Amino acid sequence: MTFETKRLILRPWEESDAEECYRYARDPRVGPMCGWPPHTGADQTRQVIRDILAVPETYAIVWKETGLPIGSISLHFHSDLAEKDDEAELGYWLGVPWWGRGIVPEAAREVLRHAFADLKLERVWCGYFDGNEKSKRVQEKLGFRHQWVTDNVPVPQMGQTRKGHANLLTRAQWRETVTSYRRIMPEEIDPLWELQKAYKAEIGEDEPGGQERERLTRAIEAGQIRFYGAWDGGQLVGCCSVTVGFSTFDYAPGGVFEDFYIRPEYRHQGVARSLVRFAYRESGVSSLTVGCADCDMEMYRSLGFSIPLGNLLAFE
Ligand SMILES: CC(C)(COP(=O)(O)OP(=O)(O)OC[C@H]1O[C@@H](n2cnc3c(N)ncnc32)[C@H](O)[C@@H]1OP(=O)(O)O)[C@@H](O)C(=O)NCCC(=O)NCCS
User: 266: CA distance to ligand 1 center in Å?
Assistant: First the structure.
């Protein structure tokens, strides 16, 4: 499998990478930080590629501009930290001349996307040995959270024991780091309309047509209804609307909450909760009400709609 990021290609290691890999793996500032001694010759590196690196879910970090490998990144399964089937441990190293340019975070963001979105893992672990401030910083930037310190971690290849730090990133925490929330503008009606259609289909209603789309666009343009979205990169993955009026409930702007839809693959990861909070804050309303079917009561309650307002009736 091969991945591409802005500056990098991540692809499987090949024996023909031995010379380039050795150029970096011989440096005493690289391997020992990960627990292995510096390589002593390109032949040894070739052997390491054959025996250790050329396995699934280990990728050469290749600098796109030159096409040459400059480091390595991998997901390990059933490792010291990742014991369960739905977990992996992230590991990485980079050639010294390439340090300090955000290259490992860039590669790791793609590998984490792969781990959570493609492989559907629940947790990714990552460790570093005490004193490795650069690696600690990489893990902070990726959103990992510190779990515990172990005093005597065996480092067999170096004939040592060391103090090790264990960090963890859960699927929900990862989702939070890659999802952003903002108002959906009138010119973004296309992706919003796709969500509207998916929503109506899921609740068993007819697909809305061109006229409905036109009316919705005009209402958004006129500011009658505001839509808020959850975005994964450039993709709209969830929405809700707030229609703002004035309420003598507390003599302040009040909002009605509707059109709540999160794409199925983004559910149960905290996106809905964050979107409701965001919409409440951004719309500036002092009260936000939702009318819902009995079967949705528990969900809305758990999202913070906790004040019962008696019975809500609509006039026809
Ligand atoms: C740890 C390592 C992978 C970092 O990769 P990287 O692509 O350089 O990561 P970044 O560019 O994000 O740098 C991470 C932090 O290191 C520090 N750093 C990096 N280069 C630096 C430099 N030249 N001078 C000072 N600080 C530097 C900074 O604190 C930086 O964080 P910041 O961006 O918030 O300032 C790399 O240093 C490495 O390969 N080290 C040896 C192997 C290793 O330790 N692997 C991890 C084992 S757990």
Answer: 32
Can you give the pTM of this predicted structure? 0.86
CB atoms within 10 A of CB 307: 10
Q: In this structure, what token pair is assigned to residue 44?
A: 């040894």
Pocket probe for ligand 1: among 39, 59, 134, the residue whose CB has the most ligand atoms within 8 Å is 134
Q: Whose CA is nearest to atom 48 of ligand 1?
A: 128
In angstroms, rounded to a whole number, what is the distance separating the alpha carbons of residues 70 and 84? Answer: 31
- Say whether 185-302 and 3-176 share the same fold: yes
Which atom of ligand 1 approaches the CA of 29 most closely?
41
Domain ranges of the chain: 3-176, 185-302
> 56-99: per-residue pLDDT in tens?
999 999 999 999 999 999 999 999 999 999 999 999 999 999 99
Residues 3-176, CATH architecture: 3-Layer(aba) Sandwich (3.40)
Q: Could you tell me whether strands 123-129 and 87-94 are parallel, antiparallel, or unpaired per DSSP bridges?
A: parallel
User: Could you confirm whether domain 185-302 is CATH 3.10.129.10?
Assistant: no
